[in-house]
Amino acid sequence: VTVTQFHAGTAYNIIPGEAHLTGTYRTLDPAVRSEMPARIQRIAEGMCAASGAECRVRFMSGSGPVMNDEAVVSRIAAACEAVLGPNSVEWMAASEMGAEDFAMYLDYAPGAMFRLGLGDVSNLHTPTFDFTDEAIGLGVAMFCGYALTHRGN
After folding, report:
1. Stated pTM of the model
2. 46: buried, middle or exposed (CB in 10 Å: 19+, 13-18, 0-12)?
3. CA angle 101, 22, 99 (to 5 degrees)
4. Residue 153 pLDDT more than 70?
5. How buried is 148 (Cβ within 10 angstroms: 0-12 exposed, 13-18 middle, 19+ buried)?
């Protein structure tokens, strides 16, 4: 759970009458994801009750976690090594909590999301991120290699 915005008051020396908090919650387990609105509601109500305040909580649904299909991941890795050479695949040590609309595609068909190595760049969704243009050619080569070696799969 991450609070990403907090808006309250109009001046530094006036106690605000209300505050608006905005944020996101992310999980790797769909069952936990479905429980999160009720959990957050309980916590918000409890915190407000403890301080004599009231709250309204509103949820907007977003995409779930990206759950890659292992068979597709294996085919992508094989295509990568065929196109870019041995040891060109770097496996992530653990799942990450980034949100990605691609997860919605995976509700309808097996697939997998992979990342191109961009080198030493700033994190995504930061003002200092600058896409490495040289990665475009690698991405095109990867998709072509996958298409040519795994037609119909």
Report:
1. 0.71
2. exposed
3. 20
4. no
5. exposed
Give the DSSP H/E element, type plus range, for residue 35: helix 30-50
Extended beta strands in the chain, E state: 2-8, 19-24
- Neighbour-count burial for 87-106, b at 16+ CB within 10 Å, e otherwise: eeeeeeeeeeeeeeeebeeb
In the prediction, which pLDDT does 72 show?
92
Other Cβ atoms within 10 Å of 146 Cβ, number: 20
**What's the half-sphere exposure (Cβ side, CA atoms, 13 Å) at 17?**
0
The residue among 65 and 41 whose pLDDT is bigger is 41
Region 99-108 average pLDDT = 87
- Mean pLDDT computed over every residue of the chain: 89
Confirm if 130 and 121 have CB atoms less than 8 A apart.
yes
- Of 18-22, 33-37, 111-115, where does mean pLDDT reach its minimum? 111-115
Residue 149 has pLDDT above 90, yes or no: no
Query: Nearest 5 degrees, angle CA 85-CA 90-CA 79?
Result: 40
| Whether the Cβ atoms of residue 54 and residue 43 lie closer than 8 Å to each other | no
